[in-house]
Amino acid sequence: MNPSISKKILQFEAYINDTLKSDLSKLSQKLDEKNSEVAEFLQLKSIITTLKNTKSSETGFKTKIDIGNNFFVQAKVEDASHILVDVGLGYYVEFSLDDALVLIEVRIKLLDSQLKNLRTEISKTNAHIKLLLLGIRELQGIK
C-alpha cells in the first residue's frame, strides 16, 4: 500500500477516535441529562394534577421527607395551594398550582425542542463517522 495512503488512513482513524467519538459521547450525555429533566417535569406535573384532583391542595396532606441517607421524617403540609419551582441557576419561585402547570408545559416544550436538536446532532455525527469509515475502506481497497 502507498505510504501516503496509509498516512491518510491513520489520520482519518485518529480523527474518528479522538474527535468524532468524543463529540458523540458528549452529545449522548447531554441527551441523557435533558431526558432526565423532562422526566422530572412530567413527574412534577403528575403530582400537581393529583393534588388538584384530590383537593389535597386545600385540605393538606401527610407525607414523608427524605432528609438524607434514606432517613425519613413525617411531615404535614397544611396548605399546598402554592409550590416552589426551580427556574434555573438555583433560584426558586413560588407559583400557584395552575401557574406552575403553565410553566411546566412551556419548559417541556423547550426541552423537547432541545432534545430534537441533540438527536439531529447525534445523527450528523454518526453519519460523519460512517462516511469516514466508508472512505477508509475505499482507500484500503476493501469492498
UniProtKB/TrEMBL annotation:
Q: Which InterPro entries does this one have? A: Prefoldin (IPR009053), Prefoldin_subunit_alpha (IPR004127), UXT (IPR003994)
Q: Which residues form a coiled coil?
A: 17-44, 101-128
Respond yes or no to whether keyword Coiled coil is given for this record: yes
Q: Per its UniProt record, what Pfam families does this chain match?
A: Prefoldin
Database matches in CDD domains: Prefoldin_UXT
Q: GO: which molecular function terms?
A: transcription corepressor activity
GO CC terms, sorted: mediator complex
Query: What's a GO biological-process term for it?
Result: positive regulation of transcription by RNA polymerase II
The record's listing under SUPFAM superfamilies reads:
Prefoldin
Mind listing the UniProt keywords for this protein, alphabetically? Coiled coil
Would you identify the family this protein belongs to, as annotated?
A: Belongs to the UXT family.
Q: What is this protein called?
A: Protein UXT homolog
What species does this protein belong to? Fopius arisanus
The gene that this protein is the product of is: v1g140887_1
